[in-house]
Specification:
The complex is a heterodimer of chains A (421) and B (178). With 421 residues, chain A is α+β, with helices and mostly antiparallel strands. Chain A folds into 2 domains: 249 residues, Porin; 100 residues, no CATH class. In chain A, helix 5 crosses helix 7. Chain B has 178 residues and is mainly α. Chain B has 2 domains: 84 residues, Rna Polymerase Sigma Factor, Chain: A, CATH 1.10.1740; 74 residues, Arc Repressor Mutant, subunit A. Chain B has 9 helices and no strands. In chain B, helix 2 packs across helix 3, helix 2 crosses helix 4 and helix 7 packs across helix 9. The chains are: A alpha+beta (421), B mainly alpha (178). At the A-B interface, helix 1 and helix 2 of A face helix 2, helix 3, helix 5 and helix 6 of B.
C-alpha cells in the first residue's frame, strides 16, 4: 500500500471515528418487544394502528346502535300504534311546529284511506297503519307524516333518503298467534323500502398465504368469522370478528457446544517428602469440555392465532334469489396466541448461535381485503354465501427484519351462511 | 446513571431500564457503523435491531476482558457481515488491479466532504467492496482477518479493497467535477 492510500484511509478513518446517527425510535421498540417475547412492538405502540382500530370500533358501534334503534322502532311506539296515537303521543322533537303536527295528524285520521280490509278486520288487533296502502291523493301527506316521524325518532339526524323508515308500506303478518309483525319487503328498488337491512354471517375461509421469497414456502391458514352488516339499497357496510388459525413450517439453524464431559486441569503441583521418598500432589480443577457442532437444523411447527376485525364497504346487486357483490376495506389482526417450540438441548449443551429458518409472525398487522362473490337465498332470511378473498398485508405478516420491504398476500375462499333480519 | 458494571449486571437480570440505558448509550455510534456496512437506512435499522438483540442475548458471554464498547462494536460488525453473507452467495474472485494513485485534489475533496457525504458514496459501493473497505480501512482488520471473516482468500480481500478504492475515486472525481 502506498503512502497516499494510507493518507486517504486515515482521512476516512478520522471522518468516521466519532460518526454517530440517532436511530429511529421504533428500532428500540422492536428490540424491546423482541426481548420481552413479543415480535413486533406492542399493540398500542403505533398511534396510527390505534387510531384506525378505534375508528373501526366506533363505526361498528355506530352501525350497531342504529340497527338497534331501527329494530326497536315498532316497539318504541305503543303496540296499538296508529297515526292517531302518533299524533297524540309526545314528540321527541319539541322544535316541530304545532301547525304541521295538526295538519299531518289530521290527515292520518282519515279512515277511508285504508284499503286493506284484511288488516282492518283484526278483531283484537290494534288500529295500525302497517300493511295499509294509501290512495294517491293522500300519499303525499302520508309520506310527509312518515318523514316527519323519522325525523322525530332520529335524534342523531342520520335519517336521510337512504334511511327512511317507511312504516306505512310494511305489510303485516296475518299470523294472529305470532302477533302483529311487519314483514320486510325484499324489493330493494321500491321507493317504499329504503330501510337498511341487517345481515349476520357465519363463515369459514380456508386460505393460502404467499411469500414473494424463494426461501419461504406458502402456508395454509383457516379463518372463522362472525360478521354483521347493513345493506343500504345496493351498498353495504360490513364488520365483525374473525379468528385466524395459521401454521408455519418453521425451524432453527443453530451452532452449539456439545457437552462431552470434564477433565481435571492441574493448576498446582506440590511435593511432599515421605519415608517412601518425594510424592507429588496434583491440585486440579474440573474443566468442562465441549465440542462445537455447527449448522444443526431442527424443524418446528409454529402456530399462531389472530383476532381479526374487518371493516368493508361493498356493492351488492340482487337478481331474484341470487345476489352478487364486491367489497373491500381494511382489516386489523391482533395476535392472541402463539406456540413456537424451543430447541431442546441436553442440559449442559450451550447454544453458540441460533437463527430461525422461518421468520416469526408479527403481533399486529393491517390488511387490505378485496372480495367478490355471490349469495344464494335458500330461505326468506337465509342465504348461502361464497366469496374468493384477496388479502394484501400492508406491512409484512412476518417480522420486518427478516423480510425486507416485501409484502405477503393471501388468497382464500370464504363460504358460509348469511341471515338477514 | 449506572456504571458500566452495574448496567451489565442489570441487563443480565433483564432489567428493561438498564437495557434501554445501554441501548441509548451505544445506539447512535452503532447505527453509524451499521449505515457504513449497509446500503441504506432501512437495512441499517435491521442490522442495528438484530445486533442489539444479540448483544442482550449474549451479554453473559462478555468476559470483561476488553471494553464493552469494543465487544458491542464487534458484535454489530459481525451482525452486519452475517446480514450480507445471507445475501451474497459468493464473492467474485478478482485479480488485483493496479489502483490509480490518488492525487492531492482527491485528498482535499475527501477532507472537505462531511461524514454523511462520504457515507453516501460508501453505501453506493457493491456489497463485497463495501464490506472489505469498511473492515480494512475503517476497522483496521488485516486482509488475512478479513479473509477469515468473509470466507474469502487474502488475495480476494486485497482485490476487493483495490476495486473499492478505485470505485470511490471515480465517485469522488464526479463530485469534484460537479
Amino acid at each position: 500500500m502506498n503512502r497516499d492510500s494510507k493518507h486517504i484511509d486515515e482521512i476516512f478513518r478520522k471522518k468516521f471515528e466519532s460518526f454517530e446517527v440517532q436511530p429511529p425510535e421504533h428500532v428500540w421498540n422492536n428490540i424491546q418487544a423482541s426481548l420481552s417475547g413479543n415480535t413486533s412492538g406492542t399493540l398500542f405502540s403505533n398511534p396510527v394502528s390505534l387510531a384506525t382500530l378505534a375508528a373501526i370500533i366506533l363505526i361498528a358501534l355506530f352501525l350497531g346502535l342504529n340497527v338497534f334503534k331501527q329494530s326497536d322502532l315498532p316497539s318504541t311506539q305503543p303496540s296499538g300504534f296508529s297515526p292517531k296515537d302518533a299524533s297524540s303521543s309526545p314528540k321527541t322533537n319539541p322544535a316541530q311546529p304545532a301547525a304541521e303536527e295538526t295538519s299531518v295528524s289530521g290527515s292520518v285520521r282519515e279512515p277511508d284511506i285504508i284499503k286493506n280490509d284484511a288488516v282492518q278486520s283484526f278483531p283484537e288487533g290494534p288500529s295500525t297503519t302497517f300493511g295499509k296502502h294509501f290512495d294517491d291523493e293522500n300519499a303525499t301527506e302520508k309520506q310527509t307524516l312518515a318523514k316527519k316521524t323519522i325525523l322525530d325518532i332520529d335524534p342523531i339526524g342520520f335519517a336521510g333518503p337512504l334511511y327512511s323508515f317507511e312504516m306505512r308500506s310494511l305489510p303485516v303478518s296475518a299470523d294472529r298467534n305470532a302477533g302483529l309483525k311487519p314483514v320486510i319487503s325484499s324489493h330493494k328498488n321500491s321507493t317504499y323500502d329504503m330501510k337498511p337491512e341487517l345481515l349476520l354471517g357465519l363463515r369459514v375461509t380456508p386460505g393460502v398465504m404467499f411469500f414473494p421469497d424463494d426461501n419461504i414456502q406458502k402456508e395454509a391458514n383457516y379463518r372463522v368469522d362472525l360478521s354483521t352488516g347493513l345493506q343500504f339499497r345496493d351498498f353495504f357496510v360490513e364488520t365483525g370478528l374473525g379468528i385466524n388459525f395459521s401454521k408455519d413450517n418453521g425451524g432453527y439453524d443453530y451452532d452449539y457446544k456439545k457437552y462431552l464431559g470434564t477433565y481435571d486441569d492441574v493448576y498446582q503441583v506440590t511435593f511432599d517428602s515421605t519415608e517412601n521418598g518425594i510424592i507429588p500432589t496434583y491440585h486440579t480443577n474440573p474443566v468442562d469440555v465441549y465440542d462445537s457442532v455447527k449448522e444443526t437444523y431442527v424443524p418446528t411447527k409454529n402456530h399462531y392465532t389472530y383476532l381479526e376485525i374487518p371493516l368493508y364497504l361493498g356493492f351488492r346487486k340482487q337478481v331474484n334469489r341470487l345476489s352478487y357483490f364486491v367489497k373491500g376495506g381494511p382489516a386489523f389482526a391482533l395476535l392472541i396466541h402463539k406456540n413456537i417450540p424451543d430447541v431442546n438441548l441436553a442440559a449442559n449443551d450451550e447454544i453458540i448461535d441460533i437463527k430461525k429458518s422461518q421468520p416469526l409472525r408479527v403481533n399486529t398487522n393491517w390488511q387490505i381485503v378485496l372480495g367478490a362473490g355471490i349469495d344464494y337465498r335458500i330461505h326468506r332470511n337465509l342465504s348461502l354465501s361464497v366469496e374468493p378473498v384477496f388479502r394484501y398485508y400492508v406491512r409484512s405478516a412476518y417480522e420486518r427484519r427478516y423480510i425486507k420491504s416485501r409484502h405477503t398476500y393471501d388468497i382464500g375462499l370464504r363460504a358460509g351462511v348469511l341471515y338477514n333480519f | 446513571m449506572y456504571s458500566e458494571e452495574e448496567i451489565i449486571k442489570r441487563c443480565l437480570n433483564n432489567d428493561s431500564h438498564a437495557q434501554e440505558a445501554l441501548y441509548r448509550q451505544y445506539a447512535p455510534k452503532m447505527f453509524g457503523i451499521c449505515l457504513r456496512f449497509t446500503r441504506n437506512k432501512m437495512e441499517a435499522e435491521d442490522v442495528l435491531q438484530d445486533g442489539f438483540i444479540k448483544i442482550f442475548t449474549y451479554l453473559k458471554d462478555f468476559k470483561n476482558e476488553g471494553s464493552l464498547e469494543g465487544w458491542i462494536r464487534r458484535t454489530m460488525i459481525n451482525t452486519a457481515i452475517n446480514f450480507y453473507k445471507k445475501k451474497v452467495k459468493r464473492y467474485n474472485e478478482l485479480n488485483i488491479d493496479k489502483t490509480e494513485l490518488p492525487d492531492s485534489d482527491e485528498e482535499n475533496i475527501i477532507d472537505k466532504l462531511s461524514a454523511e457525504e462520504l457515507l453516501a458514496t460508501i453505501q453506493e459501493l457493491p456489497d463485497g467492496y463495501r464490506m472489505v473497505f469498511n473492515l480494512s480501512v475503517i476497522e483496521g482488520f488485516t486482509h488475512k482477518e478479513i479473509g477469515d471473516i468473509l470466507h474469502i482468500s487474502e488475495n480476494t480481500s486485497k482485490s476487493q479493497l483495490s476495486r473499492a478504492r478505485s470505485t470511490l475515486q471515480n465517485k469522488l472525481k464526479k463530485i469534484k467535477n460537479q
